[in-house]
């Protein structure tokens, strides 16, 4: 198994951040052939999604999360920015892990699919992402 932790700057606004380039670089440096890429976010307020980006789906996902998990005062978890409790519930809907098949060193994603970090927590501008390759 080959594993590496990277830092991703998400800034001070909600974001769906495409990680394809980072995943490709990691697989190349790992000398990956066939196997599995596991992507893990060790944070209580971030998740990973396999989603199309650049055509509005990333913004649609953030809108859906705002509709489903409003940033108001209903949350019992109250430290941080107003409505921050929603950020702690979000990983139940957008989990902090993804596993992608790798064939010949390339992620076996569909044409429009991307591996994306989903971060709704504006209080935490830097995230860690653990990439692990398990050879088949």
Describe this structure as you would to a colleague.
This protein has 136 residues and is α+β, with helices and mostly antiparallel strands. The chain has a single domain, classed as Sandwich (Jelly Rolls). The chain is 20% helix and 36% strand. It has three helices and eight strands, in the order ββαββααββββ. The chain has helices at 20-29, 57-68, 85-89, and strands spanning 2-9, 15-18, 35-40, 46-51, 97-103, 106-107, 114-119, 126-135. The strands form two sheets. The chain has a five-stranded antiparallel β-sheet, with helices on one face. It has a three-stranded antiparallel β-sheet with strand order 2-7-4. Strand 5 (97-103) and strand 6 form a beta hairpin. The chain is elongated.
> Would you list the SSEs in sequence order as H and E?
EEHEEHHEEEE
> What is the CA–CA distance across the termini?
10 Å
The count of helical stretches stands at 3
- How many domain modules? 1
Structural class: alpha+beta
CATH topology: Jelly Rolls
Helix content: 10-25%
Largest sheet: 5 strands, antiparallel
What's the rounded overall pLDDT mean? Answer: 94
Beta strand count? 8
How are the strands ordered across the major sheet?
Answer: 1-8-3-5-6
Runs in which pLDDT lies below 50 for 5 or more consecutive residues are none
**Top-tier CATH class:** Mainly Beta
Shape: elongated
Please state roughly what percent of the residues sit in beta strands, choosing from under 5%, 5-15%, 15-25%, 25-35%, 35-45% or over 45%. 35-45%
Architecture in CATH?
A: Sandwich
CATH homologous group name = YjbQ-like
Determine Rg (CA atoms, Å): 15 Å
């Amino acid at each position: 198994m080959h594993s590496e932790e990277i830092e991703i700057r998400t800034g001070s606004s909600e974001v769906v951040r495409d990680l394809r380039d980072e995943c490709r670089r990691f697989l190349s440096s790992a000398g990956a052939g066939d196997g599995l890429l596991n992507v893990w976010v060790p944070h209580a307020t971030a998740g990973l999604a396999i989603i199309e980006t650049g055509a509005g789906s990333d913004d649609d996902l953030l809108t859906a999360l705002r509709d489903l998990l409003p940033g108001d005062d209903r949350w019992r978890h109250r430290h941080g920015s107003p409505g921050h409790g929603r950020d702690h519930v979000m990983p139940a809907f957008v989990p902090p892990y993804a596993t992608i098949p790798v064939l010949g060193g390339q992620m076996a994603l569909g044409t429009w699919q991307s591996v994306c970090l989903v971060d709704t927590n504006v209080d935490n501008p830097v995230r860690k992402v653990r990439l692990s390759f398990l050879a088949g």
